[in-house]
Design a protein that fits this description.
globular; mainly alpha
Length: 90
């Protein structure tokens, strides 16, 4: 993607085929997730060490993924609460 502004309002699930059936993710846009994604500057500086340090000394990507997962889980819980039908007794 050359310009993030061109896709910032697209559903995040458009870019990951295994997520397309998820109704909650269809409502989350790229703009919502971009702040949680790994920054290119990190890879410009440390990318040459990724193969040897990833998952042991460096957990940068894992931390980003955890933030995304927390955000997704919060959205999913909110969506579940909204979809629970309520009974009214008159």
């Amino acid at each position: 993607i050359d310009n993030i502004k061109n896709v910032q309002n697209f559903a995040f699930s458009n870019f990951m085929s295994h997520l397309r059936g998820n109704e909650t993710l269809n409502k989350i846009t790229v703009k919502d997730f971009i702040k949680y994604m790994p920054k290119i500057k990190h890879f410009e500086k440390y990318g040459h060490l990724c193969q040897s340090r990833c998952g042991t000394e460096c957990r940068y990507c894992y931390k980003c993924a955890e933030k995304i997962q927390k955000k997704f889980e919060r959205r999913q819980k909110i969506q579940e609460k909204m979809s629970i039908s309520q009974c009214r007794i008159n």
